[in-house]
TrEMBL record, chains A, B:
It comes from Tranquillimonas rosea. SUPFAM superfamilies: Xylose isomerase-like. Keywords: Isomerase. GO terms for molecular function: isomerase activity. This is Sugar phosphate isomerase/epimerase. Gene3D superfamilies: Divalent-metal-dependent TIM barrel enzymes. InterPro entries: IolE/XylAMocC-like, Xyl_isomerase-like_sf, Xyl_isomerase-like_TIM-brl. Residues 28-261 form the Xylose isomerase-like TIM barrel domain.
Length: 275, 275
């Protein structure tokens, strides 16, 4: 299997979060030949959703996802504010034509140690948001986060758990497979197969560095870490994924300090050589 | 369920790693009323295995475990040096009368991205070490480490994976359940039940802090984090665990900087109030 061409890549705006606005990301992704973009909502709101949708269309970019809905446990169990925000996220995903709305579901409720309660709240929040998303024609993608984020970001930490939820909730919900979060899982191959074409809604690339110096912002450029990226790509493609390969690198001490055009050029090069 | 009395606790020497030698740990554990101790091998070697065994016996302490064997992938696939070291670890565990030899199995082989190869090497290393351990009357306990250590410390990261290995290898091998590593796992309850009395060989306590500032050395004192410690204790006890509750806290910026007697007094107090 050969590597990825630029047009198979999507730029997640987190990769150049401190350097570029969404307008600059759209322009940069197009200049470097990317096939798509995946905005975070803070940058989307800065630009405005309608102007962003138009600029993305005009640049000929696909939208591999919108980051992110979820955080259902933030205020305790499913506050009106949280649910309203998730409905707005669905609507924004529809406006920009995103392939899916990526869900970071939230961790433990404030001052709680009750993980099963968090699981229940999250599933209820997903179910309600999915109702709205089906009406809006938006697919909902649960992103299982690495278990090191279970307490404070997402209490769904394996593909298996995410797909159990999908099984219960039915049509229109699937998974966003980010290699950083799931690469270590001995059940990963089975769960990718279980997910199948309809539920493999996004595929996110970066790398796991050794050592990793920060739990949040020390992700690696593809090829600089230990994840078998070609192997994982082969697996999701074998089971029907044909979306863009979205590059999302949180890197406070390295890539966020570099010139953004250098970052994108490196992403394109590593897409070819390391994926 | 009431909390733990001091005599139900075991002091893992890592909890006061920079402060105390093994001789001091033995003395301190006894003074504070602990039921046992679990030495790391570096401290054991400093003191000498035979003198340590005698001092532990004389202090009336049980040995809840020896930390640690494993690291099978350190030199690539199962070097003579690694296997010899594991045999020595078994012999030391026998000499000090440890309830089990705790196994931190090792991560990816050097310069490798091949996780299935690491799994295979680890299982072969465990099988060979187990042969020797059976002869020596030593139980072998696989400690699944948190997935954030998959690359560089242990590629067995769930109870499920560890028990799959145990199923294949048979008698004399089980698991060391450290709450820090497994608390997030949606399959944990099922796997504790699956393990059962004979394979629940050790139970390690500390806590998961929010935020966690370092991947290695920012573990919390029981009660300072988000893990449902009474709930997990209830589960392992319900399925037959009746060993000591071993306290192992890596805490470079907090507990390792305090007076060791203060640390042990706090452990005893939190055993009562937070476990």
């Amino acid at each position: 299997m050969s590597g990825l061409d630029a047009h198979q890549l999507s730029l997640n705006t987190a990769t150049v979060r401190p350097q570029w606005t969404l307008a600059q990301c759209i322009d940069g992704a197009a200049r470097h030949g990317f096939g798509g973009i995946s905005p975070w909502r803070d940058k989307l709101h800065e630009m405005g959703t309608d102007p962003a949708a138009k600029a993305i269309r005009d640049a000929g970019l696909r939208v591999s996802g919108l980051c992110r809905g979820g955080m259902f446990t933030a205020d305790g169990p499913l506050s009106t504010e949280v649910m309203d925000d998730n409905r707005r996220a669905v609507d924004e995903a529809a406006t920009i034509g995103a392939d899916c709305l990526v869900m970071v579901v939230g961790g433990l409720q404030p001052a709680s140690r009750d993980l099963p309660a968090a699981w229940e709240t999250v599933e209820e929040g997903l179910a309600r948001t999915l109702d709205h998303a089906r009406g809006a024609g938006v697919k909902v993608a649960i992103e299982p986060l690495h278990p090191m984020y279970a307490a404070d970001r997402a209490c769904v930490n394996t593909m298996g758990h995410a797909l159990d939820i999908c099984d219960r909730l039915g049509e229109g919900i699937g998974v966003a497979v980010d290699v950083y979060h799931v690469w270590w899982d001995p059940n990963l191959s089975r769960q990718i197969e279980r997910a199948g074409r309809d539920r493999l809604m996004a595929f996110h690339l970066c790398d796991w560095l050794v050592p990793t110096r920060d739990l949040l912002t020390d992700r690696g450029m593809m090829g600089d870490g230990v994840i078998d990226l070609p192997g994982l790509r082969r697996q999701v493609e074998a089971h029907g994924f044909d979306g863009l390969n979205e590059v999302e690198i949180f890197s406070a001490e390295n890539w966020w300090k570099r010139d953004a055009d250098e970052v994108l050029a490196t992403v394109v090069e590593r897409g070819r050589t390391a994926c």
